[in-house]
User: What shape does this take?
Amino acid sequence: MRRDTILAQAGARRDPATGAISPHICPSAAFQHPGLGQSTGFDYSRTGNPTRQALEQTLARLEGAAGAAAFGSGLAAVDAVMRLFRPGDAIVVTEDMYGGTFRLFERFGRTMGLDFRYVDTTDAGAVAEGLAAPQARGLFVEIPTNPLLKVADLAGLAALAREREALLVVDNTFLTAAALRPLDFGADISLYSATKYLGGHNDLIAGAVVSRTRELADRIAYIQNAAGAILGPFESWLLLRSLKTLPLRLARHEANALAVARFLEGHPRVSNLRYPGLPSDPGHEALKRQSGVFGGVISFELESPGAVERLLASVRVFLFAESLGATESLVTYPLVQTHADIDPAIRERIGLTDRLVRLSIGLEDPADLVDDLDAALRA
Ligand SMILES: Cc1ncc(COP(=O)(O)O)c(C=O)c1O
Assistant: This one.
């Protein structure tokens, strides 16, 4: 089946007994054994749960992957991937990245004996240099990056990673597999904060790891069971429900984002506008070639931190909150919210300033979004 069919029928045809189209929410913690040495396939819900399995199988099918594992948050998914590495290993990481991932790597990855080297992953030379270190075993990339929306060349990065036998992990939260399938470009793992577009409604926290090979999928499943950061059955069901409309939502997020970006482009109070859907954006061609979908996140700068504060206080349709990818449009101040934990030296190097604003464009009428920003920028 093709992408939209897999998504529209997510979780269906799983219950021959009743013919239920919507999968059951199965809250059972434990499962009765028919006899000694026998199992229904389910023993204990940390190890495997029917509702979570329906979700995991849908996510794996969507990417043509060997397996997928659902976690209690995007960061739990990153944490599980981090546990694939051994003390002494080094991982080359996108320097412009979600602040919580940076905090996890620096505060906990380092205590596990891992080393992280932050580079501009749109610069193949910088990535090759990072991977040249004898301890380099991994390459961790966001596409596009959060919050500056830079677009790496995944096939190029996969070739570099393969040369060094390093694992390529792609955080595909901003686009999702409905728009771009990292494994098709040679990635080993695609990873999600499913809290964002996969969930899409600002009503659940979830994460997922999708693995190209059976061996990797088994190792991640082992970590999922052994460390226990699983997604619960109700959230698994909610996520399955959300997946059914993912392509429709993505299309509207993008159409709305383009309308907002066009309004902001050339606005006298806006500078360093980043939206890969604009033909003038540095990431446009690279994303057009790899996906053709540009997503719903925009970032830009105002003239001062005071101007950012006034914008946050003046919006009436946008909500001032720290997330993205849902029906409601949100405005975020990365420096003090999502990216407060990024090393100040890195923030300065990449241009994550105290004037930077990030917008997540929702599914509202685009004219209301433009009117709201127009009024707030005048305030
Ligand atoms: C790109 C990216 N990866 C991972 C995460 C972490 O996900 P969660 O908040 O679901 O733990 C986020 C959260 O904002 C994110 O933006």
Observations:
- The longest helix spans residues 246-264.
